Structures are given as C-alpha cells and as structure tokens.
Amino acid sequence: MSPRQNTVLGLGLGLAAAGAATAAGVAAERVTKTRRRALLTLTPEGLYDHKPDKELVVVATDGVPLHVEVDEPDPAAAHPDHPTIVFSHGYTLSLKAWVLQRRALVQAGYRVVLWDQRSHGQSERGSRDSCTIEQLGRDLHSVISEVVPEGRLVLVGHSMGGMTVMALADQFPDLIRERVIAAAFVATSAGGRNMVTLGFGQFLGRALGRLGPRLLDQLGTRQEWLNSVRHLGRDLEDFIVERWSFASPVSPAAVRYTGDMIFRTPFTVMSDFLPSIDLHDKRDALAQFHGIETLVVNGTQDLLTPPDHSEEIVRLVPGAEHVVINEAGHIIMLEHPEVVTGLLLSLVERGLRAADEGVRVERKPRVRRTLTDVAKRRKVARARGRGRHEAP
C-alpha cells in the first residue's frame, strides 16, 4: 500500500469512528491481548443477537423506504394501558444500538418499536437534500402513524435520534401533547451552537466541521477500496471507537459491535447529515415537552455531546430529571446498559403515574443525580485481576 493510500485509510477510519469530520492523529498505548481476553467477561449474556417479532418497511413522505422492527411483549406481561416505546438511534449508528434496552423493556411487558433512520442501517438512502433533522422528524412521524397509530407513546432518542424527536415535536406538536406520556433524551443536544467539535474545542472543532463534508465526500469516492482493507487498520479502528464512544473499559465485542455500525455507514452519508447537525437548533421545540415526564441522560466524558448540552435541555424543560453517569462516553447505552435500562424503566413508570394521576410534571423540582455504575466497576476489577493472574 502506498504512503498516500495509508494516509487516506487512517483518515477515513478516524472520520467514521468520531461520527463526524475529523482525522484521528493519535498515539496511545494499546491494551494487551491478555487484558482483552479478560474484558471478554464484560460481554452481555446472549451477546448482541436479537430477532424481532416483526420487520416491516414504512415509506417516508418523499418515498424513501425505512426499515422498522417491532418487539411484542408476552401477553401475560402486557397491559392494555402500557405505552409503546419508540427508539431513535444516533448518527452513523442503527437500531442495533438499542439491542440491550429493547430486550429488557419487552420482557417488562412493553411493546417496542425501533427504526433505522434514512441512509442508516437497513433503511434506504435518501437524497443529499433530504438528509436533514427536519426530514428525520417527518420520518419518525411516518413510522408512528403506520406502526403505532393510536395509544400512549414513550419516545427515546440518542444523539441525532434525540434531535429527531425534537424535530417531531416542532412539526407535530399535537402528537406530543395528546399521546406522549414520557420522553428520554440520551447524549443529545437541542443545538443553538456549533455542534461539530468532537472534543477538540470550539476553535479546532469549528474548522473540522467546515472541512468535514468535503473530506468525507472525497473518501466516499474510495469507499469500496476502504471497505476492502478495513482489516488492515483494525487496531486503529478499535482505538478510535473506544476513544470517541466510551469512557470506561468495555469488552472487545462491544467495540467491534459499535465499530461495525459506524463503519458500515458510507462516508457520503456522514457528509450528507453534517451540515444539518451543525446547524441544529430545536430549543423552542422543547416547550412541547412541558408537562410531560422527561429524562435527560449524559455521560461525564462524552466528547461528542458534552454535559453542557444536556444541561441546556434540562433548563428548557421544567420538571425534567437529569442523570449524569460517571465514566461514560457517547455510546452510553452499550457502555452502561443496565444503568440506562433501569432509568428508562423508571421513566416509563413515572410517565404512567403522571398521566393517570394528573401530576403537574412541570411543577416538580429539578432533579439532578450523578450515578456511578458500581456493578460494572466490580466486573472490571475482577476482569483485570484475572488478566494479571493469567499474564505470563
């Protein structure tokens, strides 16, 4: 491989894993093979395989087919007044990002609906002009109209998915007011600022944001070649995924699972969405969630949507509960799955109570909690202890 090709490959992997337009010029000590073997114990039971009860296609307003999956609860656990929980994933990810939460929620008796946002996962590509947060809001409305035409709703959005939920509220406020009993904004932002900083600060981040679409388009012309040689840069790929996705040890399976979602997103798709993400501003739309049970979650070390983005959402939604998770990065639902799942289950229960008892949610005092995933810390300590014991 020529020096020029090596440069292009390294740049491409960095751009993709960061979930935006930046090249990763990084140097760091790699975890040892022994430690990687030890961290296998952090892999969730059943890995990440999941078979939905139903798969279908919903056609968006502009004709783009959207992939949707539905999980139905056991009739013995289901309740007629239970809401349907609709998940929206983040930029460069897919509905697979929610695999651990969907399992737990359906087991708790809830119907779960997930979808791949346009140009992501198994959904079809949209035109460049259609790759906007506003269109994603219309897409989510199409999914709800066809798959959940009636009944109570809980909306959960991560990163760009949270922005999609805000765009839905902006364009279809009656749906929010009449049917949504709870909403969760996970590692996301209401915007109103330069969004593409990637942990590099406003000055460098703004420059990267301007250059990103052009660089990604150039990489898109070499997409097939880059895909064919991905295995040659696997160590770099894994390092970058860990750097921008997580802030605590995760299993190699989690890194690979996340990396596969990210790197299967074409560079041109990343380029298509960046301008709309960078200009995103849905602060006014958050008024539609006044009186609705709302959860805002972020990680203390999220490089893509830092904690101050979540604090702005909480400021604009009276009564919102704000949970900050220590040692957590951007892909928080795969990094601390039990914590996130527990928070969502509690949110749904609060939403049901508020709806049934007429609780004035907006009058609740602001609640801000900082959590540490103690159970995971213990697992990591045991894994590292075994790794040291097995080391030659």
From TrEMBL:
Q: Which residues form the signal peptide?
A: 1-23
Residue ranges annotated for the AB hydrolase-1 domain, each copy included: 83-337
Q: Which InterPro entries match?
A: AB_hydrolase_1 (IPR000073), AB_hydrolase_fold (IPR029058), Carboxylesterase_BioH (IPR050228), Epox_hydrolase-like (IPR000639)
Protein's name in the database: Pimeloyl-ACP methyl ester carboxylesterase
Q: Which domain of life is it from?
A: Bacteria
What PANTHER family does the record point to? HYDROLASE ALPHA/BETA FOLD FAMILY, PEROXISOMAL MEMBRANE PROTEIN LPX1
Q: Which GO terms describe its molecular function?
A: catalytic activity
* SUPFAM superfamilies from the UniProt entry: alpha/beta-Hydrolases
Pfam families per UniProt:
Abhydrolase_1
Keywords annotated in UniProt: Signal
Gene3D superfamilies hit by this protein: alpha/beta hydrolase
